[in-house]
Amino acid sequence: MRIGLYPGTFDPITLGHMDIIRRASALVDRLVIGVAINRDKGPLFSLEERVEMIENECAALSKQTGTEIVAHPFENLLIDCARDVGAQIIVRGLRAVADFEYEFQMVGMNRVLDDSIETVFLMAEARHQAIASKLVKEIARLGGDVSQFVTPPVNDALKARLKR
Known about the structure:
The protein is of the alpha/beta class. It has a single domain (3-162), classed as Rossmann fold. It is 45% helix and 20% strand.
């Protein structure tokens, strides 16, 4: 069984994330969405809310593709999480050249820690390249319309959370 790990904070999950998840699901039999517990980032949504959003957003895609897609919270090293879930590949989404520089360093470190786990980069589709959870939250916080960046349920969750 080919198992992939797609890590991130997913605060919240965006259409850009869903694009990468959809395309990564064609590469593996099981795709684990690693939901990072990163207290330093001060997430808008709790871990439980982020996991629930991912499960809800990925349920139909999992049925459609036949790929098992599961959410898995983690707080340890990414490479240790990959080992924990039995992943042979780590999937990383790229939006811009700036992403690549950081990711390139991460791959190098991960290869030193465990050279049996490959990293696969998927470029976000052009219409999703500008989407970043941080920017989505900022736009929503300032009363802007983020409906073109997230699904309706996630948009509703953002509106409910940021209600003044």
